[in-house]
Every structure is written in C-alpha cells, then in structure tokens.
Amino acid sequence: MKKSVSIILAVLMCISLFAFTSCEANESSKDGYTVGICQLVQHVALDAATQGFIDTLKAELGEENVTILNENASGSGETCTTIVNNFVNKKVDLIMANATAALQAAVNGTDTIPVLGTSITEYGVALGLDDFNGTVGGNVSGASDLAPLSEQADMILDLYPDAQNVALLYCSSEPNSEYQVKEIRRLLVEKGLDDANIKDYSFTDSNDVNSIAAAAAAFADVIYIPTDNTAASCTEIINGVIGEVPVIAGEEGICSGCGVATLSISYYDLGVATGKMAVKILKGEADISKMPIEYAATFTKKYNAAKCAELGVDTSALEAKGYIAIGE
Questions:
Q1: What is the rounded distance in angstroms from the CA atom of residue 99 to the CA atom of residue 106?
Q2: d(CA 246, CA 160)
Q3: How would residue 24 be classed by pLDDT, with cut points 50, 70 and 90?
Q4: What pTM was computed for the model?
C-alpha cells in the first residue's frame, strides 16, 4: 500500500511540474509575436519589400521576440488563400500581404487579425472599394508602391519624343496594372499623343508573355510596363523578344531586367515603412482601422546601364536629366 501511495505521489509531482512548465512557457510566449508573410511571387521588388519588413520587425521588436512565418505563393492566388488560412489557423498576431493577390486572400481570410498590405498600387482598386478615401478601415491598412504616373508619362515623351506608337504591356489579371495603364493612356493623350497610337497588350499569365510581348514590340516605338508582378517575374522572357524596342518601366526591378529607364520607389524602404506600421499595431500604439495608407516620400529616376549600352542610349544625357544608374 505504501508503495502505491509513493507511486501516486510521484505521478502527481510530475503532473504538477509539467503544468508549471507549460504555464511558464505560455506566459513567456505572450511577450513575443508571430507574424505571417504571404508574398505572391519571387522577384526583385517584392523580395526587397519583404526583407525591409523583416529587418524592421527584428530591429524594433528584438529578434528573439518575433517569429516570422515567411511564405511565397509562386504566383498563385489559390496558394495565397492556402497560406493565409494556415496563418489564421495558427492565430498569428499580424499578416503582411505582399502584392495584390496576397492582400485579397488575407482580406477574404480574416476580419479580426490585422492585415497590412505592401507593394499595392491602389488599395481602392485592389479591394473593389468605390468609396475609398485613403483609409481602408476594419482590420486592413498598408503601404502603396504607386509612383507619380504623370511623371512616368513625361519620361516616355521626353526620352522618346519622336515615338509614334506606344504599347502598354501588362497582366490583365492584375487590377492595379489595369489601373496604371488606363491612367498612362489618359495622361499620354492629355500630353498630345493620339489615342489611336496607344495600344494595350495584355497577357493573362506567364504562359502568354512571350507572344504578347513580341506583338507589342512589333507595333511599338516604345513600350511601357507598369508595376506588374507577372511582368516582373518574366523580364528575361520580355527582354528576349522585344529586340531594340525600348521599355520605360514602372519600377526598378522590371527596368533592371528589360527596361531602359524608370521612375521608381525603393521597395526595401517600402517594406521598412510597412514594418514600422506593424510594430505600432503589435505594441498597441495604433488602431489599424484608423491608419491611412502610407505612400513613398521619394522617387528616383534610374537607368539600366547594360540595356542603354545595348540600344546605344547616351547615358551622359540621361545623367544630365537627373537619372542615376541602377545599383548606384
């Protein structure tokens, strides 16, 4: 009997010790944060935004206090949904959605977990908000990668004043790309180009980029590509079929792959700005429902030195206009 009592006491002590250890672990976990990142696809711009976001969280929260679940959807909206649902099941403290499809998946996946978008051009367009006034509301906010489209239209006309035909090359499944090309078309017409000489060339996904880009090059004297994730992940294909037709790009990553020049934000800095928003939310210093979308403060004219050399573009003339080489 005494032996049985001893065994029971030993078991009870083990249970108590386990309960104490478990409680202690749960208590300590409250001091840390778990953040899920859903990035639509891997390319230079989105990668830089994600890195800026991660670096900021680690620097401001302490690397030991934040667990980051960084997932890439390889260009699939369905995979974005799967990733977000996994984050929701794990009850992460915040979701960062990098690119429009990732943001749409996050918004559809949760109305309670804070969601911050980044690399989103126009939130009203991305989320179908007719009354968007700069603040999404609810559990959603973020940062925009929108560069001044009027100045990008000016670049086309300034660098290629003799161009008669302009092709607008983009992915039709990306609503923010459609928004940009509509605005660029309107601006080019306002600035004197005939609407009949501006043509849209839209691909549905990476499978038809080659043929559509080739058709655009056959028509155009100059091609404009907006901030477009499919284009950004297919710059090698585009560069291989456009020949000597110059490209003005909406962002630096696309320009470095197939373009001559761009007016671009820093996507790393965009990620940093999004990270700082996240820190305020996680620390309880800001209410996401009242946080307006943040926009880049600076934009830089840049040129692709290798592409300029290939096409015989005078880079000294570009530098005289305030352009700097990508990578400098």
A1: 11
A2: 9
A3: very low
A4: 0.85
